[in-house]
Amino acid sequence: MQSILSQSIPLKDVINDLAKELNTPVTQNCSEYSLQIPEIYGEGSITGIDFQHGMGIILYNCTFTKDMEIRFVVDKIHPLKFLFCETGSFVHHFENDKTDLHYADLLENIIVASNQNNGHILQFRGGQKTVINSLEVNRKEYLFTMECEVKSLKKQMEHLFRDETAQTAFYHRGDYCIKMADVFSDMKNFKEGPFLQKLFLESSAFKILILQILQFEDDLKEDKNKSILRRSETKMIQKASSLIDNGISDFDTVKNLAQEVGLNANKLQDGFKSIYGSTVNGYVHNKRLEIANQLLKNSDYSISEIVFMVGLSSKSYFSKIYKDKYGLSPSALRNNNGKKK
Questions:
Q1: Taking Cα atoms as reference points, which of 160, 205, 162 lies closest to residue 50?
Q2: Nearest-angstrom CA–CA distance, 121 and 95
């Protein structure tokens, strides 16, 4: 396995260290430092941005030709790291323990803090595109401005932030939430000048930290009580929408649909609002009208038959909601098209 080394803490210096190891220049855009991975090692980029209050972010977008490890080894207390795997997978371990490997797959995140002055090792698989967003927090600097407020955190997270002298190692693994995925997407797509870019990225870093803390506290609950929708659970939401699409006449209740796909009802509702911009019942309502509209235009079924086929029992109610959406009644549409009522 190939290896490159950083022996610095400020992210500006981290990027400069890695650039020297890779024999490639560093591009600076105000407080943003970035390197392009040379062709001999693969392709992609690594970018570091320092913010106020001891926070910063490293953005890895890498495809190494061979297995690669990045070693963060310096005789100082290392930042608390929140690592989010957006594409591919990676492995983390502490410098002093090569046997306890922390795996992070697609859409998973890990929280890691080394004890004493032990470093962090990140391993990338050769030939695999890997996108990692790493939020870094210098706890001593952060606590300087948040000493009073941090006591409101749950006990385990409060201890993690208060451990500014790194007495205890910490590791936690979970799936990151769908709202966090939206933040990462917005960070990529925001293209403005350096002033607005810095403000936007710094506000995004705080938003990520907020969502991560909320998710960590949610992770500690029993499965039935968890309320935050993980990014990996979107497949269950998509399965639910497919069940509705393909069995609109059989739709019963949100509770039963949630049980069928393996989510609680609150998570199912949150997922539909996030992905489709609607509650489950709102999605069902719109889908019934879409299917009915196509059947009215393209089939010879009677209106009464279509009402039954989309899972409704009242022809008058169907006529009302159809007219509300499309501006004319089903009978008027059929008259216009010369089809039977």
A1: 205
A2: 6
**3-class DSSP state of 46:** strand
Rg (C-alpha) for the chain, rounded Å, is 26
Helices 280-298 + 330-337 axis angle, to 10: 30
Which has the closest alpha carbon to 48: 22, 80, 26? 26
Pure H helices in the chain: 11-22, 139-146, 155-162, 178-189, 194-219, 234-246, 254-261, 265-276, 280-298, 303-309, 315-326, 330-337
Q: Which among 134, 39, 124 has a CA at the least distance from the CA of 88? A: 124
283-308 pLDDT per residue, tens: 999 999 999 999 998 898 999 999 99
Tens of pLDDT, residue by residue over 11-32, are 999 999 999 999 999 999 888 9
pTM above 0.70, yes or no: yes
Residue in 193, 182, 175, 65 with CA at minimum distance from that of residue 127: 65
Q: Report in angstroms the alpha-carbon separations of 58 from 27, 111, 264.
A: 14, 14, 35
